């Protein structure tokens, strides 16, 4: 007999406001870390070729966040990107993504020549033997010189698997991204909030960072993810279309746009000369001036979110959090009435 469980998404829950002695949200501390690498903002820009390259890395670093450079480039192109970021000074914290095949030349360039401190093993289904092999080979070469992130996984079992392989941080979430079609085209996935809740129950969760990946559409979703146990939020769509994103500005009769595409979309596969099942889409998003303004807004709203729970930092939020399930009517009540279709 098949046992069907219920899974919660961000729209299914709200956080219950609690007594607060926080007089100003400016005093809320969002500082966080990945091993020895310290950050002021728990936001990571997604390793996508329409989001994360040199300019995004520099802007994210300037506000205390992290960029993981995508893997859809040649080793020479990666070298050029890292040269632009560092310009002779190794002080900006940045990560790079690698696949589970043909990754060692990229690893040697990043770690040995640029002292890159964060490596992300980027695979759609991380609960997989190829992820295990890659993690072990990379760690055998790099040792404790790096903080290794792997994923994605959707289950506690997947989280445990990657933790046992040696991962220091794990991307949690499958199929929840704004341009991801994995759930539609494969029938597999779990709502990202439920994945975070489940992975937070792992015996490894206290020592391995949970990185919520996919589904956060606004600061409120980010607060819910952190409250559920995430240490960081990895985002793509929230930063898409900004001038820091790679790609040209496209002028149309409806305004100015930039391309934003899932890495498993047909257009991305053609660019990278790969052939996969289609699990993503490609679209145009409105051009926005700078990512700094978006990050500052996210920071202020996340701080405000913590203050509603009376939490002065992320750890306090996670210890004090009280979730409540809401009905569909409750969700619609949350939407500004003047913007809602009657």
SSE map:
Blueprint: E1 13-15, E2 32-34, E3 37-39, E4 43-45, H1 54-62, E5 66-69, H2 75-86, E6 95-98, H3 104-114, E7 118-122, H4 129-142, E8 147-153, H5 156-165, E9 169-172, H6 182-186, H7 192-199, E10 209-213, H8 219-228, E11 232-235, E12 250-252, E13 255-261, H9 266-271, E14 282-286, H10 291-308, H11 314-320, E15 323-325, H12 328-334
Helix pairs in contact: 1-2, 2-3, 8-10
Q: Would you give an account of this structure?
A:
By secondary structure, the protein is of the alpha/beta class. The chain has one domain (12-328): Aldolase class I (TIM Barrel). The protein is 34% helix and 18% strand. It is built from 12 helices and 15 strands. It has helices at 54-62, 75-86, 104-114, 129-142, 156-165, 182-186, 192-199, 219-228, 266-271, 291-308, 314-320, 328-334; strands at 13-15, 32-34, 37-39, 43-45, 66-69, 95-98, 118-122, 147-153, 169-172, 209-213, 232-235, 250-252, 255-261, 282-286, 323-325. The strands form 4 sheets. The chain has an 8-stranded parallel beta barrel, surrounded by 6 helices. Strand 2 (32-34) and strand 3 (37-39) form a beta hairpin. Helix 1 (54-62) runs parallel beside helix 2 (75-86), helix 2 (75-86) runs parallel beside helix 3 and helix 8 (219-228) crosses helix 10. The protein is globular. The mean pLDDT is 93.
Strand order of the largest sheet: 4-5-6-7-8-9-10-11
In N-to-C order, the SSE pattern is: EEEEHEHEHEHEHEHHEHEEEHEHHEH
Which regions have little confidence, pLDDT < 50, spanning 5+ residues?
A: none
Helical content stands at 25-40%
Going by CATH, what is the homologous superfamily? Aldolase class I
How much of the polypeptide forms β-strand, as a percent range? 15-25%
Number of strands: 15
**In CATH terms, what is the architecture?**
Alpha-Beta Barrel
Compute the number of structural domains.
1
- Largest sheet report: 8 strands, parallel, barrel
User: Kindly, what is the distance between the CA atoms of the first and last residues, rounded to a whole number of angstroms?
Assistant: 43 Å
CATH topology: TIM Barrel
Q: Class by helix and strand content?
A: alpha/beta
Question: How large is the count of helical segments?
Answer: 12
Task: Using the alpha-carbon principal axes, give the shape.
Answer: globular
Report the top-level CATH class. Alpha Beta
């Amino acid at each position: 007999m098949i046992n069907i469980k219920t899974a919660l998404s961000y729209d299914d829950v709200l956080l219950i406001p609690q007594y607060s002695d926080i007089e100003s949200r400016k005093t809320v501390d969002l500082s966080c870390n990945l091993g020895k690498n310290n950050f002021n903002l728990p936001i990571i820009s997604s390793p996508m070729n329409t989001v994360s390259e040199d300019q995004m890395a520099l802007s994210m670093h300037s506000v205390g966040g992290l960029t993981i450079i995508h893997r859809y480039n040649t080793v020479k192109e990666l070298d050029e990107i890292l040269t632009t970021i560092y310009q002779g000074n190794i002080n900006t914290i940045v990560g790079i993504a690698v696949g589970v095949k043909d990754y060692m030349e990229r690893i040697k360039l990043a770690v040995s020549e640029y002292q890159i401190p964060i490596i992300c093993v980027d695979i759609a289904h991380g609960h997989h033997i190829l992820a295990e092999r890659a993690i072990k080979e990379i760690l055998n070469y790099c040792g404790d010189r790096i903080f290794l992130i792997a994923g994605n996984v959707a289950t506690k079992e997947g989280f445990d698997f990657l933790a046992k392989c040696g991962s220091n941080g794990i991307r949690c979430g499958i199929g929840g991204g704004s341009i991801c079609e994995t759930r539609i085209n494969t029938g597999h996935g779990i709502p990202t909030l439920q994945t975070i809740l489940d992975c937070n129950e792992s015996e490894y969760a206290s020592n391995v960072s949970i990185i919520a990946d996919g589904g956060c559409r606004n600061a409120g979703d980010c607060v819910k993810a952190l409250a559920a146990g995430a240490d960081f939020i990895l985002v793509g769509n929230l930063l898409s279309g900004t001038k820091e994103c790679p790609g040209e500005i496209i002028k149309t009769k409806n305004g100015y746009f930039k391309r934003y595409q899932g890495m498993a979309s047909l257009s991305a596969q053609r660019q990278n000369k790969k052939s996969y099942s289609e699990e993503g889409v490609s679209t145009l998003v409105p051009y926005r001036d700078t990512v700094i303004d978006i990050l500052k807004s996210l920071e202020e709203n996340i701080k405000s979110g913590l203050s509603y729970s009376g939490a002065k930092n992320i750890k306090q939020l996670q210890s004090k959090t009280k979730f409540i399930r809401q009905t569909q009517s409750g969700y619609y009540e949350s939407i500004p009435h003047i913007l809602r279709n009657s």
